[in-house]
Amino acid sequence: MDLSKLKEIVEATASGAAVYVGQVTGQPMLAHTPPLIEINAAMPNPADPSEVMCRATQAGIDYLKANEGSSTKSAGNYQIMTGIALPELKRRGNTSGSGAPTKYPFADLPVGGVFFSGNSEHNKGDAVKALGSTVSAQNDKYAEQAKDEQGNLKFKEVTRAVRDKTTKKAKLNPDGSKVMETVQLPVKEYSRKFTIRPVPAGYKSGDWVAPEAGALVARIK
Fold first, then answer.
1. Domain extents for the chain?
2. What confidence category does residue 59 fall into, taking pLDDT thresholds of 50, 70 and 90?
């Protein structure tokens, strides 16, 4: 999280001044739960079309107050060198007949390829829950924000429940309905896309039969 940029946005929001943010800096702020900023994709920065107008949310203001005092290591603590050869990369896995096997074969999956993970492989006995975040991380690894024909970053308007920062549960109105908010989220394009599905023991597809209950992970793009 770029706290210096967040501080700039918070200060500009408080003073009513225009402030803009780009994809790299703004994405972590938008992806935070709850979002730290709101953007207006229809108002690009006149000086840099890759940036769009934004403002801080109350969550962003609170986040800055809680983290403004944190420090990061200065680049001045490191010596910048050139002409230094990197050591050979040691590949993880059993490619040479020893070492721990590669955990999940995402990199090797062709489009339409799948792999199975049984519930017994995971401490809590639920392969879908255990692998859900891994699949999401792999999708993000192969994603980038989409652009329109003019080269501007694309966003979509999403209405979602507001969640309490402490309990992570949806906030409720006096009538018991969920408190909702509308936010702008980046539209992503994927060079690879994976999905996960639960399967019961004995599930049959072609000649393959699931040896136990678990999950199938598939590459769909």
1. 3-69+143-190, 106-141+191-219
2. very high
